[in-house]
Amino acid sequence: MSTENMDSQNSKAAGYAAHEEVEEEEYRPTEADGGAWGSMPAKKAKNFGPSAKRLIGLLKPEAGRMAIVVVFIIVSVVLTVIAPKILGKAMDVIFAGVIGKQMPAGASKEQIVEGLRAQGQNNFADMLSGMNLVPGRGIDFNELTFLIAVILLMYFVAGIFMWAQGFLLNRLVMRVVSGLRRDVEAKLNRLPLGYFDTRQRGDVLSRVTNDVDNIQQALQQAFSQLLSSLLQVAGIVVMMFIVSWQLALIALIALPLSGVVAGVIGSRSQKLFQAQWKNTGALNGQIEESFSGHELATVFGRQEDMVTRFDAKNEELYQASFGAQFVSGMIFPIMNWVSYLAYVGIAVIGGLRVAAGQMSLGDATAFIQYSREFTQPLGQIAGMANMLQSGVASAERTFELLDAEEQEPETATDHLPEVTDGHVTFENVSFSYTEDKPLIEDLSLTAEPGHTVAIVGPTGAGKTTLVNLVMRFYEIQSGRITLDGVDIRDLSRAELRSKVGMVLQDAWLFGGTIYDNIRYGNLDATEEQVMAAAKATYVDRFVRALPDGYETVIDEEGTNVSAGEKQLITIARAFVSNPSLLILDEATSSVDTRTELLVQKAMRALRTDRTSFVIAHRLSTIRDADTILVMENGRIVEQGNHDELLDRRGAYHRLYMSQFAGGQDLDAEAAAASSSMSSPS
């Protein structure tokens, strides 16, 4: 298939875009979009519940492995939550051994407690009564060693299980996202051209790249971290109540207070971050404008004005960024202060309870550790909730793409002969982008084999629409179009387009060698065929002068070859595909007059023995066409060759005079250009 990339056709469907607004949710720019740099603020899904359910549904094929991941997370969390309790027991063994060593051997704990009470040392007696000690015996190192070994083993096993769940989760998420990327890529190839005509290319690109990456991050990090953090919170709360329900109530008092702080400050910071990103985008636009328009600003002496505008926008960004960072930076210090208040309360009351013999020192130590660990998973849940919200929003945008209406399914019932003549007929064809505004009505025309049919007319007349219908980029509403007598709707799109070559106004090249770009028109072409196409279209003329010849690599922006040279390469690409039907859509509008004549020679060679449709605004490029169609409002208002249409002094004559009323001598210009081209380059 030799059809060029159709991105340049977007502007041709302006009539459609003007009559059908596409409501898109706001999407903040990233570096990939050419917008604001850095990370994006969290996006919000319009329908969080259904979108989240569908996102989780992507994991259904991996349900078995997901169950294993969940089990591994549970085991890891249970072990890490129980470990502080056992560590508290180890602390009790040490403390009991130290105190017991100081007690007289042979006496029982009860006797010593009674003796202390008799001496009026009730507090010390209460503390000893809550301890498991043997008077006269020091630290039981066997029990201590066992407990420490158990703790280390628990943390080691927990670490192994956490690593294993991360490994399994990464593998299955990568498989899911890989399948999602395949689905998105396949969907893009099934979408009609109208879908791309009504959407910004950057938005579609963001859905395919940034949003899918965001889904991967949400599944990969948010799921594991969120589940792990939720289980940790639940486990820590349970263990705190097991150790001391009184201290647990004190610890939980901090929760609503922290939530209020996070809610109030978070809502304020969100508004400031929105202002920050708005000003960041404005500053980026100013910087891009300054660089791209540097020469123009220099010519008109506007450098100081550009600097002043930059300083103003930079100051606005500074104020917004400082406010956003300052307010958001208050959240964790205030939450930490609240947690420290709870920590102080727990330490004081816990110490009193230990002194009163109501709990052991080990339990108090374990509880303090639980209280310190309690805030970490809460912070992770808050962060993961934002990530999950953003991931669901990205999933929603990706699902909108996957759910978009596709082009009509293939109904191929016929085939073209191996060799086609290129006889194209429009029979009472009608087409409109929207039902309320007809564009082409009851159009009939015939393009004879080997003839060149030029299509001219004002913008919006339907010129490009006409050739888009031939390519079946859009489907007609009534009538029929035939190629060599076969209705094109009875052909597969691939078979139809394999017979058509197209050269667009915007010369689009791959990031590869010149040779590869030419051969793209026919991947089965031999080196001799590629060279023949290059010579026939005057590509060989300038490639030979390049240091690397045909192995010259076209850079990403195609800046190492001129606009005219790029256009010649695209013509050679169409030439090597050897199409039966050729479409040239304003292929010379972006080059200068002398290069235009060289391109015309290449197109003339390409059009030889082929039926050609040529769309042109420059009437000088189609004077030799066999038939010129003048279109206005979707209708053919005049038809004939160049001289006939000029003699009629109608629509074509008006177009011609509007371009050349200045008295330009086209024949003299052509002769001068031909003379310059014949000289050595």
UniProtKB/TrEMBL annotation:
Ranges of Polar residues composition bias in the record: 1-12
Main location: membrane
SUPFAM superfamilies associated with the record: ABC transporter transmembrane region (SSF90123), P-loop containing nucleoside triphosphate hydrolases (SSF52540)
UniProt keyword annotation of Membrane present: yes
A Pfam match: ABC_membrane
Region (Disordered): 1-38
Alphabetical UniProt keywords: ATP-binding, Membrane, Nucleotide-binding, Transmembrane, Transmembrane helix
Domain (ABC transmembrane type-1): residue spans on this chain: 67-390
Stored SMART domains: AAA
Topology of the protein relative to the lipid bilayer: Multi-pass membrane protein
GO terms of molecular function: ATP binding
InterPro entries registered for this protein in UniProt: AAA+_ATPase, ABC1_TM_dom, ABC1_TM_sf, ABC_transporter-like_ATP-bd, ABC_transporter-like_CS, P-loop_NTPase, Type_1_exporter
Top-rank taxon, per record: Bacteria
ABC transporter domain span: 424-658
PROSITE patterns recorded: ABC_TM1F (PS50929), ABC_TRANSPORTER_1 (PS00211), ABC_TRANSPORTER_2 (PS50893)
Transmembrane segments: 63-83, 144-164, 226-243, 249-266, 337-356
CDD domains given in the database record: ABC_6TM_Tm288_like, ABCC_Glucan_exporter_like
Compartments, record wording: Cell membrane
Entry protein name: ABC transporter ATP-binding protein
Species the sequence originates in: Sinomonas terricola
